[in-house]
Fold this sequence. Notes:
The chain has 101 residues and is of the alpha+beta class. It has 4 helices and 4 strands.
Amino acid sequence: MISVYFKEDTKVDEILKGLENLVSQIDTVKSFEWGEDKESHEMLRQGFTHAFSMNFENKDGYVAFTSHPLHVEFSAAFTAVIDKIVVLDFPVAAVKSSVAV
């Protein structure tokens, strides 16, 4: 999971479309979710406005994603518009998974 604080004047919609396009083209991404913080107090979020989560079948899938030419190309544009970023890489311990209705 990553949380980002975009630079001022970033065209966030274009970045989001780029991310959605990227993950749809690389099969090793098993799921991709993102959200924008609308409720937290500024003091708590410290400028971080968006969070992104990607899941992979295994470590090999993650390595294939990060070395994929499309990811390498998009990463340059993505990192150029980020003021701050927090990256968390953890195995999921599902206690109660969401169910699509």
